[in-house]
């Protein structure tokens, strides 16, 4: 025996690699197939892992370490569950809790920002009011200037803001003189005191932070009411004291919350419990929900299918190497050598496949990310990059899957690679390799493909249904936008707040091409939305607010009926005679009448709201009934009050308005061409006013609204297609390997008088049982999965029976092609040629 | 109808095209075989013997020329019609036995009967008969790899016999056998010939040429010489 030197080992390794590559070139068909299969599988797996890594598992980095928890106030009624806390209660929690180390709070929305010292247009940015200790709580140092001081919330001083690095760049050209300058935020002057470090956008994708003195926020549109429920609620963040678990904190906070609820039953009677959860998890749960995990599961199924495919491919490649491996064993190769040979072949194959997978993942991540960004409010720490962690995952994945999928064939080869195989005594096929194991794996593959095909077709059906529902309006001709006129006029009752928009409407409608313009409150797009509010009907007594009926309430102005083609079903539309001086009126929707006053004449009935600053006090007389303007729901009409957007009350702008207005413009052709004109006209009211970022057609708005669904559905569809292809490829490769192996047998059969039909049958006979068992198993599993998913995806209302035949037909066609092509090929071969093969 | 020509070949040509190389496997072959003939085909390796047999057995179509089998011009036949004729009229015996490895001896023998549409029960009976004839019925449930070469070839003969073909084509049937087993197979063929089966056999072993009525010598795809007891029609 010679002992090997390191050099020899390296050389023999390279010889083996070289040989592995030569093998790839020798079997181009199965090589390409294996590479495609592995590329698809790893591509899907990497995509999902990058998503999990960059979104589900990612969290923002702060200078101060330790977990930040979000505290939710969970209420009993789902629809009322704001999960936020009244700023008045925040102080109580802060002072009474023993287990919380530090707390901070924020709340926010978007606001128009205008830099008077520049000539740039005003622009909308995300904006948060935060506690004075917000930056300190996170341990954040400013890039420039300072963070907040207690004096920033004093009434005598100017309002102060900290701006993001990005806003600083955009609005100030990164000029250091920004600190100390005045910035118009929401129409009001604010002093810039600091610039946050680059990249810092906490708590989501924020650009402006304003110090707020809970529990006494100075609100520009302060509510006229004074009760606790008039406060805009805040999000609470906390760091727990050392050794305190979230459960302990929850228990303590619940006790405090109960005290609050007892003391103020009117506003807190709905409390269920307190929820303490790490911020990032809470954020994800809120945004991405469980569907991501469903997709994750599916992606692993796809990966498993790909592995099974590779396994079978390597299995058949190894089978075709039987005599080569036998010669090796006759020449003295031991078991490890043989196994090593096969595993190396697999490793080379899967590595190339993985490279392709990275490419596929790169593209699909770009695609998904663009989809994802339009559907979800993006947190600044989210990404979908192929970073080191993901790459590590890929390497591990490839290694494991190739070893797993080639070890078994390798071991089998080692066992059967005896000199026996060299005695070419012309005995026909041994059938050593494509045995029961391959068949089992093929069966698994087919079941998995059926499951995925089933689920994805279902998803596509739902997607199609939801995207083809008819519109009662012209969604492509209506532009929806909005602006905030905060600061215009003395207060929110100043008539200028109605007159200025109406003058703007007149100017816009004078442009040839503009059909009509309207304004709304609490409903930017004009048809969806509205605020969910309790109201009182005349003549009814209510013990407390929980007994009151509720509806979605929105304000509308003249021209609404022109923009939306709304032909009232009864009564009249608002007109120029509905003013502050005349009788207070409202319009209700058809669904409202059906729900609250079935069979009654609504005209003349009176309803009342309590303390809503943009709705006139006292009773409002119903003067009209609005038809349904929204799209039909996917299933049957929901009977759960909270989900009903169509139970609506419309109030006239002229009898109570709001600084924040939605605006809709209808024109022939693409209405987006009017955006610059609208900007110009708005600037005439004041240069600090700007259109909201979300200026889109009603159709685009709908797409964005559906983007989450569409993303989920698209991904399910992709996985389904990928797995169906993989399943078919798997079946095809097994079948064609089997056919190749039995080539001579077909020649014999043909010599004995088998016709084409007989040959085709001889080929597919083996596959059919596997296919039948695998696909029926898959269908049953797919059905079960669907039943489980129906609840979460709210598709339980759609009749879905048609999916079954579609899946069956699809399976039969794809699998039929996969089996039929090799069979057909076999039946076409001249028998003499088949007989010549040895 | 003894003496009627069952096989008639006129100007048969077979060219194989592979990688731009044309191989003239057969050139201008004229051949007539009468019913009941025992023709032996001889010649060096690669001269086109197997190709000739393939064409005779309808496994291969000639590039040019006319071939009538039992009065039927095979040019006019489609893929499945050819299969039907093969099944009904022709029996094959190969050098390498060509039993189907996954089927038992009995199933192998039944296979052509099944393709001919014979009911299962009759098939079984017929298979038993022919296996008895080749003295292999005791092994009917074995798989081919459990048999010796001589036994496998006898099963192959039984399979060829099962449909009672008019023509038996044997391509070096003894090539893989020792002389004792080879003799046994040859004896079977002789017996069949005695019963009136037309036989066309390729053989290397000049001893077995003696069994034949005619010996056809091929060289480079051409018939170069014919010797025999019966007049040759060219
Ligand atoms: N399918 C084929 N493709 C190409 N050449 C072939 C094919 N079959 C046979 N040949 C060639 O035709 C010639 C005759 O072959 P064959 O009839 O098998 O010879 P024999 O049986 O006399 O040894 C040989 O040169 C062989 O290489
Ligand atoms: Mg030959």
UniProtKB/TrEMBL annotation, chain A:
Domain MacB-like periplasmic core: 31-255, 541-661
Location relative to the cell: Cell membrane
GO molecular function: transmembrane transporter activity
Name the UniProt record assigns to this protein: ABC transporter permease
Domain of life: Bacteria
ABC3 transporter permease C-terminal domain mapped to chain residues: 298-415, 718-829
InterPro entries: ABC3_permease_C, MacB_PCD, Macrolide_Exporter_MacB
Keyword Glycosyltransferase set for record: no
Keyword Nucleotide-binding found: no
Stretches that traverse the bilayer: 32-57, 293-315, 336-363, 390-411, 432-464, 713-737, 758-782, 802-824
Keywords: Cell membrane, Membrane, Transmembrane, Transmembrane helix
Gene Ontology CC: one annotated term: plasma membrane
Protein family (similarity comment): Belongs to the ABC-4 integral membrane protein family.
One Pfam family cited in the UniProt record for this chain: MacB_PCD
Membrane topology of this protein: Multi-pass membrane protein
């Amino acid at each position: 025996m010679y002992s090997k030197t390191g050099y020899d080992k390296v050389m023999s390794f390279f010889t083996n690699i070289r040989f592995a590559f030569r093998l790839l070139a020798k079997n181009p068909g199965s090589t390409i197939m294996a590479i495609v299969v592995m590329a698809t599988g790893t591509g899907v797996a990497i995509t999902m892992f990058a998503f999990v890594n960059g979104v589900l598992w990612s969290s923002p980095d702060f200078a101060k370490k330790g977990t930040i928890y979000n505290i939710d106030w969970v209420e009993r009624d789902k629809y009322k569950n704001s999960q936020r806390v009244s700023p008045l209660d925040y102080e109580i929690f802060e002072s009474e809790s023993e287990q919380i180390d530090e707390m901070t709070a924020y709340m926010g929305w978007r606001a128009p920002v205008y830099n008077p010292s520049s000539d740039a247009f005003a622009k909308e940015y995300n904006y948060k009011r935060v506690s004075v200790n917000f930056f300190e709580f996170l341990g954040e140092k400013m890039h420039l200037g300072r963070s907040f001081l207690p004096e920033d919330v004093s009434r005598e001083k100017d309002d102060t803001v900290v701006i993001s690095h990005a806003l600083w760049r955009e609005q100030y050209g990164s000029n250091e003189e920004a600190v100390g300058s005045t910035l118009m935020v929401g129409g009001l002057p604010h002093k810039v005191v600091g610039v946050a470090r680059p990249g810092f956008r906490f708590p989501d994708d924020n650009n402006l932070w304003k110090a707020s003195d809970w529990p006494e926020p100075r609100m520009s549109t302060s509510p006229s009411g004074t009760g606790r429920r008039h406060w805009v609620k805040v999000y609470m963040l906390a760091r727990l004291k050392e050794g305190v678990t979230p459960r302990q904190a929850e228990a303590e906070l619940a006790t405090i919350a109960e005290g609050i609820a007892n003391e103020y039953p009117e506003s807190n009677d709905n409390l269920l419990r307190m929820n303490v959860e790490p911020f990032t998890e809470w954020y994800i749960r809120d945004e991405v929900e469980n569907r991501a995990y469903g997709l994750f599961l599916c992606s692993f199924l796809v990966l498993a299918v790909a592995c099974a495919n590779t396994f079978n491919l390597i299995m058949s490649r190894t089978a075709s190497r039987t005599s080569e491996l036998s010669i090796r064993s006759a020449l003295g190769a031991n078991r490890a050598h043989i196994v090593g040979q096969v595993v190396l072949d697999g490793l080379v194959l899967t590595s190339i496949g993985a490279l392709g997978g990275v490419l596929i993942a790169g593209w699909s991540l770009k695609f998904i990310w663009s989809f994802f960004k339009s559907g979800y409010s993006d947190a600044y720490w989210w990404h979908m990059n192929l970073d080191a962690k993901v790459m590590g995952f890929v390497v591990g994945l490839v290694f494991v899957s190739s070893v797993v999928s080639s070890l078994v064939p390798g071991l089998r080869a080692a066992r059967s690679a005896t000199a026996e195989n060299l005695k070419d005594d012309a005995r026909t096929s041994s059938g050593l390799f494509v045995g029961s194991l391959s068949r089992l794996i093929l069966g698994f593959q087919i079941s998995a493909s059926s499951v995925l095909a089933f689920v994805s077709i279902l998803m596509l059906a739902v997607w199609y249904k939801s995207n083809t529902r008819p519109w009662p309006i012209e969604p492509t001709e209506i532009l929806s936008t909005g602006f905030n006129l905060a600061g215009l006029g003395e207060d929110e009752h100043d008539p200028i707040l109605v007159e200025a928009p109406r003058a703007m409407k007149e100017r816009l409608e004078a442009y040839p091409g503009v059909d009509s313009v309207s304004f709304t409150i609490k409903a930017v797009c004009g048809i969806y939305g509205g605020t969910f509010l309790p109201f009182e009907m005349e003549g009814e007594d209510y013990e407390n607010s929980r007994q009151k009926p509720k509806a979605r309430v929105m304000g509308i102005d003249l021209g609404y009926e022109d923009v939306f083609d709304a032909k009232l079903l009864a009564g009249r539309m608002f007109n120029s005679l509905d003013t502050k001086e005349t009788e207070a009126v409202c319009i209700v929707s058809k669904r409202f009448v059906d729900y609250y006053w079935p069979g009654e004449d609504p005209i003349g009935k009176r309803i009342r709201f309590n303390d809503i600053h943009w709705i006139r006090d006292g009773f409002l007389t119903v003067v009209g009934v609005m038809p349904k303007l929204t799209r039909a729901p996917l299933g049957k009409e929901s009977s759960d009050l909270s989900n009903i957007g169509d139970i609506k009350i419309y109030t006239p702008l002229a009898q109570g308005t709001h600084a924040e207005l939605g605006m809709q413009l209808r024109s022939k052709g693409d209405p987006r061409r009017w955006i610059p004109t609208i900007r110009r006209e708005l600037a005439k009211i004041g240069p600090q006013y700007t259109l909201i970022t979300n200026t889109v057609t009603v159709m685009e708005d709908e797409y964005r609204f559906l983007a989450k669904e569409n993303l989920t559905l698209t991904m399910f569809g992709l996985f389904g297609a990928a797995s169906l292809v993989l399943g078919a490829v798997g079946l095809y490769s097994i079948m064609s390997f089997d056919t190749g192996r039995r080539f001579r047998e077909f020649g014999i059969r043909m010599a004995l008088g088998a016709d084409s039909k007989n040959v085709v049958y001889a080929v597919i006979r083996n596959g059919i049982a596997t296919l039948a068992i695998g696909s029926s198993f898959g269908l049953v599993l797919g059905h079960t999965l669907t039943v489980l998913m129906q609840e979460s995806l709210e598709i339980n209302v759609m009749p879905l029976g048609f999916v079954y035949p579609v899946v069956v037909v699809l399976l039969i066609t794809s699998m039929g092609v996969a089996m039929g092509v090799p069979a057909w090929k076999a039946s076409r071969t001249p028998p003499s040629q088949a007989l010549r093969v040895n | 109808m003894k003496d009627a020509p069952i096989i008639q070949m006129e100007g048969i040509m077979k060219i194989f095209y592979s990688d731009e190389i044309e191989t003239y496997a057969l050139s201008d072959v004229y051949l007539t075989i009468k019913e009941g003939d025992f023709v032996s085909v001889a010649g060096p390796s690669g001269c086109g013997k197997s190709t000739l047999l393939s064409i005779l057995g309808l496994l291969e179509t000639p590039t040019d020329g006319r071939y009538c089998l039992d009065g039927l011009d095979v040019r006019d036949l489609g893929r499945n019609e050819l299969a039907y004729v093969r099944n009904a009229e022709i029996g094959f015996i190969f050098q390498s036995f060509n039993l189907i490895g996954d089927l038992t001896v009995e199933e192998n023998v039944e296979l052509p009967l099944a393709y001919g549409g014979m009911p299962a029960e009759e098939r079984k009976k017929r298979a038993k008969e022919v296996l008895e004839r080749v003295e292999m019925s005791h092994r009917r449930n074995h798989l081919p790899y459990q048999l010796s070469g001589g036994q496998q070839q006898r099963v192959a003969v039984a399979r060829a016999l099962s449909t009672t073909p008019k023509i038996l084509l044997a391509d070096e049937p003894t090539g893989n056998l020792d002389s004792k087993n080879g003799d046994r197979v040859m004896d079977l063929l002789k017996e069949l010939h005695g019963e009136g089966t037309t036989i066309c056999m390729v053989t290397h072993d000049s001893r077995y040429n003696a069994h034949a009525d005619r010996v056809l010598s091929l060289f480079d795809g051409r018939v170069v010489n014919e010797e025999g007891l019966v007049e040759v029609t060219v």
